[in-house]
Amino acid sequence: MERFMSDDRRLHWENVYSTKGEADVSWFQESPAPSLDLIHLVQAKQSDAIVDVGGGASRLVDSFLAEGLDHVTVVDLSAAALDKARKRLGAKGDRVTWIAGDATQWEPPEAYDIWHDRAAFHFLTDAVEQAAYIERLKRALKIGGHLIMGTFALDGPEKCSGLPVARHSAESLASLLGAGFKLIDSRRHDHSTPWDSVQRFQFSTFQRVA
């Protein structure tokens, strides 16, 4: 059953990224300022291994490279989304590790200093899949490393791209993550879509302490 859910999601996102332009989706950001602010908050270093889960065609990876953060992995269900990002970056994209895979099922190939997610976790509405995601997070994030999680806020949209979402607070995420994670920052962000509607996000930053 989990495999079918994963396949359905993959086909959904392949269709989205194959049929829509970069600025034709609600989550498009010309500049991913909220995520970059938190990358600066945790004092990311050039040597840090960073993974952006659900990175898709986001321009966050462009900003990482521009700031000299070039030990970057981008994971997304949609190969079409990753291909768009690679083509946009040109030769610079060769410095990035691109992985087409499901965050609830992939096997992280290395340990990371920073795990960033603004797009994947809130689409996991099933407790079993949430637990599978967190299992991989714990397997891959170094002790002392940081988790930056952007989700729809409790008063955010109930659906995105036609799919139901799970809305979170910093407290609900802390409960799911368990005692090994310490909350170090919590902030809200009102994201303006390309058609000027507002989506309310919650950004929660944790340090892994055990």
Automatic annotation (TrEMBL):
CDD domains: AdoMet_MTases (cd02440)
InterPro entries: Methyltransf_25, SAM-dependent_MTases_sf
Pfam families according to UniProt: Methyltransf_25
Stretches of the chain forming a coiled coil according to its record: none
Positions of the Methyltransferase domain: 50-145
Keyword presence, Cytoplasm: no
Domain of life: Bacteria
Keywords assigned: Methyltransferase, Transferase, Ubiquinone
Protein name as annotated: Ubiquinone/menaquinone biosynthesis C-methylase UbiE
Species annotation: Rhizobium viscosum (Arthrobacter viscosus)
